[in-house]
Amino acid sequence: MKLNKLTTTLLALDSLSIYRGLLKDKVLSNLKALKGDTTLRKVVNLYNDFYFQLARSTTFSLNDYIVDKIVFDENPFSLMLHAVQNNDSEHVLAQAVSNDLRGLQLVAKLDPSMLKAEISKLFEGKGDNLIIEGLPAWVLKSEPTSALDHIQRIKLRLTSCQHWEECLEDLREFHLAYGSGIYARYIAFVWEKTDGQGTLKGIDCPDAITLNELVDYQNIRSKVIENTLQFMEGCPSNNVLLYGDRGTGKSSTVKAILNEYHSLGLRMLEVPKAYLADFPLIIRHLKHRNQKFILFVDDLVFGDNEENFTSLKAVLDGGVECKTSNIVIYATSNRKHLVKEYFNEREGLQSGNHDEEIHAGDSMQEKLSLADRFGISVVFCSPDQTQYLEIVDGIVANRHLEIDPARLHLDALQWALSYNGRSARTARQFVDWLEGHEAVKDSQ
Question: What is the pLDDT of residue 2?
Fold first, then answer.
């Protein structure tokens, strides 16, 4: 008996094996529930549930939606590529993936008019054609996305390929290079906790700052870049502490390095200082991934008797649990001595007070030595007037603004006096204001 289009599509979903986890997806599960052995009211509800979930996504194209799910699905194929060494096992896995890709392409090609025609046949003669014809439609043509380059390439390969099973090798290379799931979708993450449970949250729009936009401090920044390249090559590398005056580009340096090298598999996870005790858990999450991760701690400083101080020290010392070759720690701080020290602690060195610690010197040295546990420390100092104006000139040149140099320098110095003093951040804020001011003036 010849199967109708709807039955064939549902059978393709039932036949999924490697990508079977996609059946839990709300769009596909509602589509799968569209069966002929039920009432029209039930079918209409299921259809609109399916359409509602599709409309909530970033596309109105079922084809694009399924391509997105294929690219970012975590399954035995995407997770275990590096572990498959037996030729027979690899062949069996490849065959299963090919079958699934064929089935998913069949589903992706489902035409809304064809689906509504099949539903009409199921309920022929019941006088409800107007309701069925009024069911909403989705678009068939693929839409361009603003995703990262490597994501655009693999999606374009799938959407332009006549037979998706021919994209098996492309998917293999994509997962080997960029991972799967959120690790392939995002380049930057933040560690969050809800009800005591820590999770990685992908950042949709990370700071897009580039190394070319960072004017001055090149010699200092080159040390961090060199260490990052060693890390990316799998060579010995160090944890890095970037400290110094506020607004000098410490955090921007780390973010720009991520944007420069994410295409090579670099990822960044920002860990708030309050969650440093979760470092062992975070490392267990990441250590078996193909990507390289920078654990980024911004504005690091510890008060007295903070437990997180011990957690960070243990990771920096490279304990058995924490030692892994695909993770480094980059931290920024406005001070080199990361743990606050008090005068009464130094008094304890000669104190005869029975309440003072006997080995006060040891505690003081432990606090002072935290910064030494970073293999590399780089110092960002506030610029003098000449450097500050050079930074302003560099930002203006990067943005292709045409401003009289004498006026530019005078306004830049006045801005620094009125606001936050001389720094790279102040220079950028000044140019932001200047660019907006000039744009408004030109429009009037």
Answer: 43
